[in-house]
Amino acid sequence: MTKKLIAGSAVALVTPFKEDHSLDKNALRHLVQFHIAGGTDIVIPCGTTGESPTLTADEQSEIIGIVREEAGNKILVAAGAGTNATNHAVALARNAENAGAQAILSVAPYYNKPSQEGYYEHYSRLAEAVTVPIIVYNVPGRTGSNVTAETILRLAGDHKNIAAVKEASVNINQIMELIACRPANFSVMTGEDQLILPFMALGGDGVISVAANQVPAEIKKLLTEIREGNLEEARDINNRLRKLFSLNFIESNPVPVKYSLSLMGMIKEVYRLPLVPLQQEHKDTMREELRNLGLVS
Fold first, then answer.
1. Closest Cα to residue 61, out of 49, 52, 48?
2. What are the chain's domains?
3. Which one of the listed residues 119, 120, 166, 271 is annotated catalytic?
4. Is residue 2 scored above 80 in pLDDT?
5. CA 251 to the chain's CA centroid
6. Is 137 known to be catalytic?
């Protein structure tokens, strides 16, 4: 079997900011090194977990450049480049490729709810605009509409550089159709940490994970144990992380995970509006779970 470029443990990387809300470049470099040490296969800056709607094009370029410099040849850099206006999404994708991104993750247009033909045309324009692989990001819970398996498979068949989908729905029938009917070199990745175990058991290629920000080595080990058929060990890891998977969405992502990383001493607890800090009761709950996992004292 040909080894797929988009596979394994991918982290949807947070964007660290200083108190003045400017980019914290040193923290960003340390995050990349943390993921290299943890065995993460793909690092994805400037995605929605990276607060992409609040980043300028210049900041996108700078972040990707820093991540690529730190990553070297040790980890693949796939950058977020998506929005709900096709021309703007194309500009972001070109900007990301020029900045050094080795692949593009592009969220399905949100709010305006395109038809399936609209989704097809949107991603076709992206595929024609860049040379690097494109990961379609389907997240109905955040965009308000679903990119169907039929549309995704059509795109994969018509465009060689549409290389993967981040399927962040909980529609098991759609997931099974994507896995069963995909072209040989097309990857199907889950965007739901809570579904890693069943998703991989169905034949999925990996995860684009939020929890990998906090526990990259454990997410990588979970995937490895599943691939090697060690289901008891995989269940143990999954059960250990199950509450963390849920708490990362106790409020809108990436607020809980950025709070966690601040407690772990990796970033400052700074968000760009309209995101604001966690409610105190949720902070207390998250801190307790991080203690249970041995991530903070």
1. 52
2. 8-230 (3.20.20.70)
3. 166
4. no
5. 17
6. yes
